Amino acid sequence: MLSTAWFACVVLFFLIALEFIRGGGLPGMLMGVVFFLLSGLCLVGFNWSLRGFRPDHTIMPDGEKIDHGK
Q: Angle of helix 2-23 relative to helix 25-51, nearest 10 degrees?
């Protein structure tokens, strides 16, 4: 359910971005870029929701890799 909501956000923000870019000159172009970036952010959230919001591993500052398993 959550992944469907994330995907809907991606599509919505991407379509809004296209509308701004198509018809608005420089302000429209800037708003289009903002909404395009928002769609990318939603895509990241969509990916995280598919993975359960848990990374596969963490790399510590000293280079040690900690595997969280699945």
A: 170
